[in-house]
Amino acid sequence: MKIAIIGANGKAGRVLLEELAGRGHALTAIVRNAARTNHETVLEKDAFALSKDDLSGFDVVINAFGAAPGQEQQHVELGQHLIKQLQGTRTRLLVVGGAGSLYVDPEQTIQLADTPEFPDAYLPTAKNQAKNLEDLQQTTDLHWTFISPAAFFDPDGERTGQYQLAHDVLTLNSAGESYVSYRDYAVAVADEVEHHRHDQQRISIVSK
């Protein structure tokens, strides 16, 4: 498939690029500074300036954008921009989401970001990513999947190739932890790219 990764030089974007490249897909890294990526196929452009024409040739666009501290509202702004560009097209949008919007109770009344233990430093990102998810859920005529990692999203963890798939409620692994490595998260995202099992849904990923 033809896949574009927005933020391909970020922590998650680089791992996604590596996993999908290893599966033989045709990948384009969308970055503001081409000098910051070694990938050979690059679209050097600000994500907020991407047009329908820029994105029309892709089967899948992955939004792995990471907002700088103090600019967390850009998760919402870029999300709304991508909805506008992709709505009514066959191109699928996959979003690297956060864990803050996952519910911690089966009744789905309390989100992780609203618990006393949630770090204040991560609240702006969590709240803005949750709003991005709300915007997607209220959008029609768009193929999207919002993919939340576990609460502990480990950039240094190993690739086991195994994971558990969940949905809107925070799920624990066999060790009683909400944990997933970037590499196993990338495996799950690549599987969703290839199999398209969760159209217009939020899913979450935790290790086994």
Tell me about this structure.
This protein has 208 residues and is an alpha/beta fold. The protein has a single domain (2-206), classed as NAD(P)-binding Rossmann-like Domain (Rossmann fold), CATH 3.40.50.720. 28% of the residues lie in helices and 21% in strands. The protein contains five helices and ten strands, in the order βαββαβαβαββββαβ. An eight-stranded mixed β-sheet has the order 3-2-1-4-5-6-10-8, sandwiched between helices. The chain has a two-stranded parallel sheet with strand order 7-9. Strand 1, helix 1 (11-22) and strand 2 (26-31) form a beta-alpha-beta unit. The longest helix has 15 residues, at 123-137. It is globular, with a radius of gyration of 16 Å.
Order of neighbouring strands in the sheet with most strands: 3-2-1-4-5-6-10-8
Q: Give the topology string: H per helix, E per strand.
A: EHEEHEHEHEEEEHE
Point out poorly predicted stretches.
Answer: none
Q: Radius of gyration, Cα only, in angstroms? A: 16 Å
Principal-axes shape call: globular
Strand composition percent: 15-25%
Percent helix range: 25-40%
Task: Tell me, rounded to a whole number, the average pLDDT.
Answer: 96
What is the CATH class designation? Alpha Beta
Please work out how many helical segments DSSP would assign.
5
CATH architecture: 3-Layer(aba) Sandwich
Can you summarize the main beta sheet?
Answer: 8 strands, mixed
Total domain count: 1
Structural class of the secondary structure composition?
A: alpha/beta
Beta-strand segment tally: 10
